Amino acid sequence: xxxxxxxxxxxxxxxxxxxxxxxxxxxxxxxxxxxxxxxxxxxxxxxxxxxxxxxxxxxxxxxxxxxxxxxxxxxxxxxxxxxxxxxxxxxxxxxxxxxxxxxxxxxxxxxxxxxxxxxxxxxxxxxxxxxxxxxxxxxxxxxxxxxxxxxxxxxxxxxxxxxxxxxxxxxxxxxxxxxxxxxxxxxxxxxxxxxxxxxxxxxxxxx
Amino acid sequence: xxxxxxxxxxxxxxxxxxxxxxxxxxxxxxxxxxxxxxxxxxxxxxxxxxxxxxxxxxxxxxxxxxxxxxxxxxxxxxxxxx
Lengths: 207, 82
Prior knowledge:
By secondary structure, chain A is an all-alpha fold. Helices cover 61% and strands 0% of the residues of chain A. By secondary structure, chain B is mostly helical. Classes of the chains: A mainly alpha, B mainly alpha. The interface between A and B is large, with 53 and 39 residues. Chain B: InterPro entries: Anti_sigma_zinc_sf, Znf_put.
């Protein structure tokens, strides 16, 4: 985001707080996708994710006066969405206990899938439903702490500092988790993508 | 300085982001020039990141935006009596 855009955002927020509430629609438009995707990464189904995203946008509006001007609206909003998703998940799985003493960043190294060569897969390949499903499934199977970092940093293109701030973790934790997430995806996807995109001699399907 | 493949793997993420120190970057670069294995790992990782970040992979559900703004509209309306 440019400084100009950031100033524009600050002005929008000031106007909304001064009573021009309709401007809130414009303020949040650029964040619909990142907020939804983050919610989806937690809730795992579209209906719940949409509900969490809506709640987050409503809460952000209700608490807009507590937004500090020195923070970034995007990271503030994302952390609200994150709390909403986590809170709801906690209520849904109140009985399920997870081990909290294990520091996930201390786990051993992730090894990539070993390949002798790699044939570039062009972006047009995502037009194929089969490829899209494969990519989505790969991201969904990442452990939560890696998935959230990956989605914010690599899919929504927040920078390292913004990602750290939104998730309330350190910059070094973002880097470690991002690295693991990327290698896990490479390990899972490289062999599968290679086999589904392998040029094959076969009968043309005319259907 | 010569490094082993498994050390190169620990630098893949920073290498792709361009955040390695000059010294390590040069070392990794030299390794990649003669190691098919690490080059393929790096190329596939880079390729996979481009593919997963494509807007077409994760899409908003149809009507998401309309439903959201409709729900917000209720909230944004000036409260009666105020």
